[in-house]
Design brief:
By secondary structure, the protein is an all-alpha fold. Helix 1 crosses helix 2 and helix 2 packs antiparallel against helix 3.
Length: 72
């Protein structure tokens, strides 16, 4: 995710508690979705789609924070 911001992501995960929470939640959702798609965790198609949308919103928010941080 965002290879062009790899170093900035590493820094923000340490320096910005909000970014760290977003990043952690994104990774948590990603793992949950993978488990659901692999039928390790029970879920309907709608459940999976809902989580994917939440994950995308988190990614969008992280991207905005990365753009702002890189501009400073």
């Amino acid at each position: 995710m965002f290879p062009e911001y790899r170093e900035l992501i590493s820094r923000l995960k340490v320096d910005d508690a909000h970014f760290h929470r977003l990043f952690s939640k994104h990774n948590e959702l990603d793992q949950t979705i993978k488990n659901m798609e692999a039928h390790i965790e029970p879920a309907s198609h709608e459940d999976i789609e809902s989580l994917k949308k939440k994950k995308l919103r988190l990614k969008d928010e992280m991207y905005e924070l990365l753009k702002k941080a890189s501009a400073t």
